[in-house]
Specification:
With 273 residues, the protein is an alpha/beta fold. It is 60% helix and 10% strand. The protein has eight helices and five strands; from the N terminus they run H-E-E-H-H-E-H-E-E-H-H-H-H. Strands 1-3-2-4-5 form a five-stranded mixed sheet. The longest helix has 55 residues. It is elongated and about 125 Å long. The N terminus and C terminus are likely disordered.
Amino acid sequence: MAAAVRLCAMLCLAAAALGKRSAVKVLSDGMWRELLHGEWMVEFYAPWCPACQNLQPEWEKFAEWGEDLEVNIAKVDVTEQPGLSGRFVITALPTIYHCKDGEFRRYQGARTKSDFINFISDQEWKSIEPVSSWFGPSSVLMSSMSALFQLSMWIRHCHNYLTENVGIPVWGSYAVFTLATLFSGLILGLIIVFLADCICPSKKYRPPQYPHSRKLAPESAQLLKKLDEEQEADEEDISDDEIEGKEVSSDRSSSPNAVRQRPVITAATMDKS
C-alpha cells in the first residue's frame, strides 16, 4: 500500500514537471527584431556544449524571475539558427547578451541565478559599453554576416544530403560544389560586366580631326590662296634684294684696286713723257 502511494506521488510530480512550461523563450532567425524592443537576456548555446549544459539549470531558474524583473529571458540554439549566430558573431559558447531598446551589451560576469538577477535589478549593464552601431545586429554588415552563416549552413545540409541520402562520395560532393562555385562566379561576372556596360557605356573611338583635314568654305579657300600668293611674292622680293646686295658688295670690293692702279699708270706715262 505504501509503495503504491509513493508511486502515485512520483507520477504526480513527474506530470507536474512535464506540464510546467519553461519560462525561457526560444528565438529563431525570423524573430530577431523582437530584441529591438524591451529588455532581453539572451543565451546562445549548443546542445553538445558541456558548459552550456551546466548553465541550463541556472538559466531556467533565472527565467522564473523574468516577469518580476520585467525582462525577457530567451535562448538561441546556434546549430539550428545560424542566422542569429552570424548576426551576433558568436565565437564562444555559451555567450550571453543583454538587449535593451536596440542597444546590445555582452554579459561577461558570473553565471549564477543571483548574479543574473543583480545584473538586471541593480542595472549593472549601464557600466558596459554597448556594441557599436557598425557591428550591431541591425547593421548592414551584420545582416550580410547573417546571410553568409545561413548560406554556409545550407551548403552543409546539401553536403550531408548528397553523401548520406544520394550516396555520392565525399570527393564527388566537393567536385559538385566546386563546379557550382565556378559556374555561379562566371554568371555573376557576366552580369556585373553587363550592368557596368549599361551604366557606363564605352565611348566609340573617333580619329582626331586636324584643321587641314576639314573642308574649307569658298571664302576661306580664296583667302588662303591669296595669302599663299602674297607669301610667294614676298619670297621673290627677298631673293631679288639678296641678288642686288651681292652685286653692290662685288662692285665695292673691285673699286679700291682701280684707285690704286690709276696713280701707277699716271706716273709711268709721266716718265715716258
